[in-house]
Amino acid sequence: MAFLEVNHIDHAYGSKTVGLGGVSLQVEEGQIGCLMGPSGSGKTTVLSCIAGLEPIRAGSIVINSRQLSVADKTTPPEKRRIGMVFQDFALFPHLTVAGNIRFGMTKNGRTDTLNELCELCGLESLCEAYPHELSGGEQQRAALARALAAEPDVLLMDEPFSRLDEVLRERLAKQVRSILKSRRLTTLMVTHSQHEAFLIADVGGVINQGVVCQWDDIYNLYRRPQCAFVAEFVGDGSLLRGVLAADGGVDMEMGHLQGNTDGERIGCFLSAPGDAVQVLLRPDDIRLDESGMSAQVEERAFRGPTTLYALRLQSGGRVLSEWPSHFNFHLGDNVSVRAQVKDLVLFPAA
Q1: Which GO terms describe its molecular function (predicted)?
Q2: How many whole angstroms from its chain centre is CA 293?
């Protein structure tokens, strides 16, 4: 049994038929999980149900073998041993950093616990500062320290980096992961950003319209998505049409691709060679090759050490590719490319 288990929960707001429909996920003790999805997909509702702020209509929520929510019974939030870090940090403006952390402490909290948390979260010199005197990153770390002060069994984080600029967001995501791992604190974070999930999470999932499409290792979400929605939501990529070949590979505009095909998953929706499919190609699957097919640079996004290119194929299809920035191709340039995949990921033709 996982430390945090959400088992087939349903939830509805008012007269709305379904807010969540059979959501399931599991986070092992000490793991960091991340639930991704577009706005309005149900991410924050899942957190609210786990925290006890919203009841569930079916299913169960279990933490450390304690059943906290079922259809007819909900343990109050204050008895769940759950910490929360909110999108706006929710620090008390009239309390210093130390005061905010003390507020989160259990009744037997000690001064050395305060000092330990300030050191752990890099707040030693800011204990007597007020929230309005802190930068966004400092406020985020203060909110995390306050949540840790309650010694929760599980930490929930609701888009904690969304108000920060991109550079600070990446740095803090790495710092927060280090802090959570040092405490072995089971954590579930929600975000609409797959980049944040890649930086911080061990496991994760994608939710859409109240349904978790896939819950898996972060690597598998990117490399072995189970549906086209997950494939397109998690990371850059393109879906191109092809035809299933007799050897289990696929024939398409960019040639015959074999890869390490997952025959069992292909067999669940394909019956025979000749079936039309969609082929997932990630940017690192498209290589420069003088003997490859011609494509034209249609868009480019400079990323410092690399540049992401959108390439238009002769048929009108489009693929993405990311190469070292010293190549420095320009809009309208023709390049020669080939596809080389390790994992051949196919979906039914649209």
Answers
A1: ATP binding
A2: 34
pLDDT at 250 over 60: yes
Q: Which residue has the tokens 């410092």?
A: 304
Q: According to the model, what pLDDT value does residue 202 have?
A: 96
C-beta separation of 327 from 262 below 8 A: no
Whether 196 shows a pLDDT value over 70: the answer reads yes
Per-residue model confidence as pLDDT tens digits over 109-139: 555 688 889 999 999 999 999 999 999 889 9
Confidence check: pLDDT of 67 > 90: yes
Residue where the block lists tokens 């033709």: 349
Which pair of tokens denotes residue 114? 């305060």
